[in-house]
Amino acid sequence: MKRHTLASAPCLVLSAAVAAFAAQTFPPPAGLVVVPLGADSETLWPFTGTGVPGEASDPINLIFQGDADPRPIRQALLALDGDRTAFGFPAAFPFNCTWADAIGRQQTAYAAAEGWQGSSIQMQCGDYEELLAGHTDRFARAADCGQ
After folding, report:
1. What's the total number of domains in the chain?
2. Is the pTM of this model over 0.70?
3. Rounded Cα gap, residues 101 and 126, in angstroms
């Protein structure tokens, strides 16, 4: 079976306290959906949350299939210059925003195969102080860390 993830992240050495927290089992959130992904599917919560379990925060709107390491995805987004006029968008905010690292609160996600996950990378497109045009969070899977 193919693996489907929101993204995967490099493994981090966890402290004993974090490892103990991660070993706990938390119930799934209400409102899980089955997302078809080619010949396979993934059962997931269609939102990011504010904790484990948490309130719905932002909708999931992009899923990477396979081993999608968030580091090269981050680098690719940072390399974009913001010029989207070739696609018919005006050279005006928010259409010409550029991606940057974001500093925000913890975000969580839930997929049936992996359970609850915390975000490993947060990015935003545009100046968050003025208007958040978009942001992205990356989530790791335990299987990607050899667990």
Report:
1. 1
2. no
3. 10
Cβ-based neighbours of 88, under 8 Å, separated by 6 or more? none
The string of pLDDT tens digits covering residues 24-34 is: 678 889 999 99
- Tell me, what amino acid is at 43? T
Segments forming the whole domain that contains residue 118: 4-145
Beta strands, E only, the chain: 4-5, 33-37, 40-44, 47-49, 56-59, 64-65, 99-101, 108-111, 115-125, 134-139
CA 22 vs CA 3, 62, 114, 118, 136: distances in Å: 21, 25, 11, 10, 23
Q: Which of 42, 48, 44 is nearest to 65 (CA)?
A: 42
Least confident of 39-48, 79-88, 96-105: 96-105
Q: Which helix (H) or strand (E) holds 18?
A: helix 16-22
3-state DSSP assignment of residue 41? strand
| 119 neighbors 107 (Cβ within 8 angstroms) | yes
Give the C-alpha separation, 78 to 56, whole Å. Answer: 27
Averaged pLDDT for residues 71-99: 91
